[in-house]
Amino acid sequence: MVSSNTCWHLDLGQIDYQSAWTLQEQILALRTEGLIQHDVVLFLEHFPVFTLGRRGGHENLLVSESFLRTKDVSLYQVERGGDITYHGPGQLVVYPIVNLNIQKLGVLPFVENLEEIMIRCAAEHGINATRNPKNRGIWVGEKKMGSIGIAVRRGITFHGMALNGKMDLTPFSWITPCGLKDIAVTCMDRETPNAISMSQIRRSVFQHWETVFNVRLNSMAMSDMRSLIDRSRPAAN
Amino acid sequence: MKTLEELNFPDHLKYDKEHEWALFDGDTVTIGISDYAQDQLGDVVFVELPEVGQTFSKGDEFGTVESVKAVSQLYMPIGGEIVSINTALEENPERVNLSPYTDGWMIKVHPSDTSEMGVLMEKQQYVEFLKG
C-alpha cells in the first residue's frame, strides 16, 4: 500500500547532465498532468559539468569554453535560480519533483528543508554546517559545502540541491561560484577526519529527507519510470 | 512565515489559484502577486517581466520571480495585451515583498475577454482556498 505521503525515489547513479535534465522535464510533465500520483526525488552524481542559472552570465566563468572542452567539461544554461555552479563525481545531487501546493509548502520553507537535510547529514558526520539566509546553501565557516538552485512551474519544483561529498574541487577554481567573489568551496571529506563514502552520504540524505519532509521514500526502478513516460507519450507515426 | 490572519488581502481585488491578484479599472487590469505569495517566496531578488505589446492567454506564463535561489513562474489571471510593466522592479524587486498590492504591481493588461474576470476569486473565496 502506497500512502499519500509517499514519494518515489530513483537512484540514477552517475549520469550526464542532459539526460538528467530531460528526465526531470518528463517527470515534471507527468506530475503536472497528474499521470504520476506521487512526488519524485532523483538521487544522482553528474559527470563534470558547469551550469548557469536563469540569470547567470558567462562573466563568472573564469576560463574559456575551449579550455573546458579540453577538460571534457560541458556548460549548460538552465532555468533554475542561482548563478554558476559545478557538478561532478563525488557530489550528491538531488532533484525533487515536488508539488508544493499538495504538500502545502511555500518556496522558502521548501528551500529551508533542503538546507536542513544537508545540515543534518553533515552533523551526522561530525561536521558543523550552517545556513546563511543571505546566501542560500550550507556553509562550513566561510566555505560553501552545499548549493541550492530550483525552479517552480505550476507549483511543482525541479532542479534541486548539490552536496559536496568526496570530490575534486579544482573545477570550482575555474568559476566564481554562485557569482560570489572570494568564496571558498569545501566538501564533507575535507571537513572530517573520518573516512566517508558516497554510499554513506546517499543513505544519510535519504533518511533525513524522510524525516524533514515527513514522507516515506519508496524506491522505483528506472525501467518503471521509463514505461510511465513512454505510455504518456502519443504513439509515434 | 506569516499566519493567514497576519496576511493582507484587500477587498477590492480579485485573486486566482496561482496567487496573482487583479485590479479592474476601466479597460485596464493591473496584476501582481498576493501577500501570501510574496510571503511564501521569501526575499525577491529579481523580477522578469514581458514586453509591452505582447499578448498572452489566460494561464500563460508572463514572467518569473527569483527568490532564495528559486525561479518561480508567473501566470496570467486573465488574457490580454500588456500595456504597461512596472520597470521600477528592475532596480527594486524587494517592492514585491514590501508592498505587493501597490508599489509591487507587475503588469497592466488590456483584457481580450472580460468574461474571464468571472472565474477569478473574491477575497473571501481566496482565503477559503488558502485554508484548503
Strand content of chain B: 25-35%
Structural class of chain A: alpha/beta
SSE topology string of chain B: EEEHEEEEEHHEH
Oligomer: heterodimer
Name the shape of chain A in a single word.
globular
What is the number of strand segments of chain B?
A: 9
Largest inter-chain contact set = A-B, 26 and 19 residues
Characterization of this structure:
The complex is a heterodimer of chains A (237) and B (132). Helices cover 32% and strands 30% of the residues of chain A. Chain A has 7 helices and 12 strands. Chain A has helices at 17-32, 65-70, 100-103, 107-124, 188-191, 198-213, 222-232; strands at 6-15, 39-46, 49-52, 74-77, 84-87, 91-97, 130-132, 135-140, 143-153, 156-164, 184-185, 216-219. In chain A, strands 1, 2, 6, 7, 8, 9, 10, 11 and 12 form a 9-stranded mixed beta sheet that branches. A 3-stranded mixed beta sheet of chain A has the order 4-3-5. The longest helix of chain A has 18 residues, at 107-124. Chain A starts with 5 loop residues before the first strand and ends in a 5-residue tail after the last helix. Chain B is α+β, with helices and mostly antiparallel strands. In chain B, the strands form 2 sheets. In chain B, strands 1-2-3-9-8-5 form a 6-stranded antiparallel beta sheet. In chain B, β1 (14-15) and β2 form a beta hairpin. Chain B is globular and about 35 Å long. The mean pLDDT of chain B is 94. The chains are: A alpha/beta (237), B alpha+beta (132). At the A-B interface, α4 and β9 of A face α1, β6 and β7 of B. β9 of chain A pairs parallel with β7 of chain B, so a sheet runs across the interface.
